[in-house]
Automatic annotation (TrEMBL):
Protein topology in the membrane: Multi-pass membrane protein
Family: Belongs to the binding-protein-dependent transport system permease family.
Keywords: Cell membrane, Membrane, Transmembrane, Transmembrane helix, Transport
BP term (GO), one: transmembrane transport
Stretch forming the signal peptide: none
CDD domains: TM_PBP2 (cd06261)
Name of the protein in question: ABC transporter permease
Localization (cell): Cell membrane
Cellular component, GO, one term: plasma membrane
Top-rank taxon, per record: Bacteria
Residue span, ABC transmembrane type-1 domain: 109-309
Lineage per the UniProt record: Bacteria, Pseudomonadati, Pseudomonadota, Alphaproteobacteria, Rhodobacterales
InterPro entries (alphabetical): BP-dependent_transpt_permease, MetI-like, MetI-like_sf, OppC_N
Amino acid sequence: MAEISHMTQETRPAKPTIRTRWQAMRESDLWYSFLSHPSAIFAACLLALVALSAILAPVISPQDPYDLAALELWNAEIPPIWKDGGQWPYLLGTDTQGRDILSAILYGSRISLIIGFASVLVALAVGLSLGLIAGYFGGWVDNVIMRLGDVLLSMPFILIAILISAMATAALPTGLKDVLAAPILIFAIAVPSWVQYARTVRASAMVERKKEYVQAARLIRVKPWRIMLHHILPNCMTPIMVAATLNFGLAILSEATLSFLGVGMPPDQPSLGTLIRIGNQYLFSGLWWIVVFPAVQLCLIVLSVNMIGDWLRDALNPKLR
């Protein structure tokens, strides 16, 4: 009996171990690819540092650049602290209004990141929805959606964004222009951006709808929206993730361009583009730090996002493994 009991214990199957999401992610090929890619690690750390400093801007910045009552004109045009005439706590100097450049960069980075992220989300939601509808139903629905996308692609991206931003600003009352400046920018960047997502999802949906599992779902009368969301959409997410990551950097750059051209954020709520536009006026008068440091911050953000997007494109492409 003892031998039988011992054999039973040895042949008894072990209980399956339940892995958490963190453990599953650490054991995935994507995580291994990330750890073996030094440039991706550097870009992720740099972007995390920028995002964390932007979130903690009210805590770590020496000044609130949005509080006009806190600005002192006798502290204007102070050079960086390592130059002659530099003062503490203005590490990167001040502008012509006494605004601390470091504080303005931290707050401006937060605005640029929020607008870029929100515009990508809006464009992604619209593009995924219209792309799924066009690819699944086809016919005249597909023609209408794609011809609308072709019209948007036939015009320059910045021109469409400037037109939308200018029309929205002109239609609003004076008191609401500054309040709704960020939502207008998000909408202006998202409108010409959804076409790329729609075309990508449409191409994948047209292939997936002809496969057996979709045909089987149709035979058992599964609703079209359920087929699109639960069956077709998960198989289209790989190229969408890469496109969204790369377009995040493009959206931040577009926001900076619009603000630089004067149709973006107002001077009392400066983004990085607004700071560059203001500093560009004093570039040749010796106040180089007003424009150089915000421009460097913008370059670092866009560079880190693009490096992450390049790594993600290579990691998710099975032909490059």
